[in-house]
Design goal:
Elements: E1 2-4, E2 7-12, E3 23-28, E4 34-36, H1 43-52
Subcellular location: Nucleus
InterPro entries: p53-like_TF_DNA-bd_sf, T-box_DNA-bd, T-box_sf, TF_T-box
Protein name: T-box domain-containing protein
Length: 70
């Protein structure tokens, strides 16, 4: 599991080319903090994720991490 804290960056710029050098403010809202599950203890849940999540490429047969489907 990983803890994430989204940040909102507000940038003032008159020209897109000057964006990296522009004045900015960063805002963090404590309410938006979340924990993402990166691994499951239950293999049935893992298989459910693989079967239904198009972004779970690492566990598919064509992905880097090969996993046998039960």
């Amino acid at each position: 599991m990983h803890k994430y804290q989204p940040r909102f960056h507000l940038v003032r710029a008159n020209d897109i080319l000057k964006l990296p050098y522009s004045t900015f403010r960063t805002y963090v809202f404590k309410e938006t903090e979340f924990i993402a599950v990166t691994a499951y203890q239950n293999e049935k849940i893992t298989q459910l994720k693989i079967d239904n999540n198009p972004f779970a490429k690492g566990f598919r047969d064509t992905g880097a991490g090969k996993r046998e489907k039960k």
